[in-house]
Design a protein that fits this description.
The complex is a heterodimer of chains A (291) and B (133).
Chain A: H1 4-57, E1 76-82, H2 92-106, E2 111-117, H3 119-127, H4 147-163, E3 169-177, E4 183-191, H5 201-204, E5 211-212, H6 216-290
Chain B: E1 2-7, E2 12-18, E3 20-25, E4 28-32, E5 39-43, E6 46-52, E7 55-61, E8 64-69, E9 72-77, E10 80-82, H1 88-104, H2 114-131
Parallel strand pairs in B: 1-9
Antiparallel strand pairs in B: 1-2, 3-4, 3-6, 5-8, 6-7, 7-10, 8-9
Helix pairs in contact in B: 1-2
Classes of the chains: A alpha/beta (291), B alpha+beta (133).
Chain lengths: 291, 133
């Protein structure tokens, strides 16, 4: 049986661990709050953007073509995989990587390349010798995303897509933030941009006609790359919020488990202590009786 | 009065009632006053001037677009910075660096240097705005 000293040492070590997990939980909660605020702050832009794109797409003629809209073959895919840079976030990274693997398994015979955003996804697929076009690590580490970083990735994706004619489609895999407890990895087609619904085009006809300072086609062409950038930005924001949410719950249950472990260890320790006291009393009593 | 919204993907920079606003469109500066006709135009990096009760405030903005309808002006852009948020030193050194790159790339066709020129415009706009205080 373990000695009293051993038990004390174990309890102390579990307590230390609990302190760390508790601190990590607090930090994650604060970062989650910030990430959620950012998701909300990004909505007005995205909303306005899709409104204007919708009304523009109703206006450009059907034979309007743009490199980012053109459908090509269906052979070569580029996956943009958004994961976290850090671990200790429960099954967060595993889930989104699993979704990527499932996607690859669902598309046998396709030639798949990857552009990982986030260290965890990069490491995983690099080890499995996936063909990586370029990689972005260390940009979500601080728990925030800068638009300029997302824009850089977006421009890289667009450049890869337009210059390398062998890429037919670009998919974006990221984790959608629903609630703190529920996050879902999703796969979205990024390029070519799926047909933009010209919603409300009928109603708008009643409204005042816009003056287009440039031709609708020209403005449309300028906005499409922006749309790609905003989509990547949004996916990264959602991913960061999910990461922090996931870390928070993981660290919460880790702290709880540590608490339970401490309780049972303390119980055990007391038992040993009492046994030792009992033993000593018996020794004293039997020593006295022998006199 | 005009309702002005300047929005970037990261935040709402301005959401206020203003008297007039000037924006740098691709076809040149455009002044917008109340009762302006509905308009959509692409923006190039430059300076947005917002006038409220005789006070003019300047902001440096990146590429994007402006939409005007029913006395509402929405400016959507990558970056929008007020004078207080600009690091003038950095803007100046950026500008010098980009100018060097531009000089080196002067042989290239115009559409290949477009991005560089946009960055140069943004840096100049930042310098301009930081001087306005």
């Amino acid at each position: 049986m373990a000695s009293l000293l051993d038990m004390r040492r174990r309890i102390k070590s579990v307590k230390n661990t609990q302190q760390i997990t508790k601190a990590m939980k607090m930090v994650a909660a604060a970062k989650l709050k910030r990430a959620q605020d950012r998701v909300i702050a990004s909505r007005p832009f995205a909303k306005k953007m899709s409104e204007v794109l919708g009304s523009l797409s109703a206006r450009v003629s059907d034979d309007f073509s743009h490199p980012l809209l053109e459908a090509r073959g269906d052979e070569n895919y580029l996956l943009v995989l958004v994961t976290a840079d850090k671990g200790l976030a429960g099954a967060f990274n595993a889930n989104v990587i699993k979704a990527a693997q499932a996607f690859i398994a669902d598309n046998p015979g396709k030639n798949i390349r990857m552009m990982p955003v986030g260290r965890k996804g990069r490491d995983f697929f690099k080890r499995r010798e996936m063909d990586l076009t370029s990689e972005y690590v260390g940009i979500t580490g601080a728990g925030t995303v800068r638009y300029t970083d997302a824009a850089e990735i977006g421009q890289d994706v667009i450049k890869t897509f337009t210059e390398d004619e062998t890429i037919d489609k670009v998919f974006l895999i990221f984790t959608e933030f629903k609630t703190v407890l529920s996050q879902k990895p999703i796969v979205e087609q990024l390029l070519p941009i799926p047909k933009i619904a010209s919603e409300g085009a009928g109603e708008e006809a009643g409204e005042a006609e816009y003056i287009y300072e440039q031709s609708p086609a020209e403005i449309f062409g300028k906005l499409l790359p922006k749309q790609v950038e905003t989509q990547i930005y949004r996916s990264m924001l959602e991913s960061v919020a999910s990461e922090q949410g996931s870390r928070m719950t993981a660290m919460d249950s880790a702290s709880k488990n540590a608490g339970e472990l401490i309780d049972s260890l303390t119980l055990n320790m007391n038992r040993i202590r009492q046994a030792a006291i009992t033993k000593e009393i018996i020794e004293v009593v039997s020593g006295a009786a022998a006199l | 009065m005009l309702k002005l919204e300047i929005v970037t993907p990261e935040r709402k920079v301005i959401d206020a009632e203003v008297d007039s606003v000037t924006v740098p469109t691709l076809s040149g500066e455009a002044g917008i006053m109340p009762q302006h006709a509905p308009l959509i135009s692409a923006l190039k990096p430059g300076v947005v001037t917002v006038t409220t009760k005789g006070n003019a405030e300047k902001l440096a903005v990146g590429t994007g677009f402006v939409e005007v309808s029913n006395n509402r002006v929405s400016v959507l852009t990558d970056v929008a910075e007020k004078a207080g948020e600009i690091d003038a030193e950095k803007a100046r050194s950026d500008k010098a660096e980009i100018d060097k790159e531009l000089a080196a790339a002067s042989q290239l066709p115009a559409d290949e240097t477009e991005e560089l020129r946009e960055r140069a415009d943004l840096a100049s706009a930042r310098i301009d705005v930081s001087r306005s205080v």
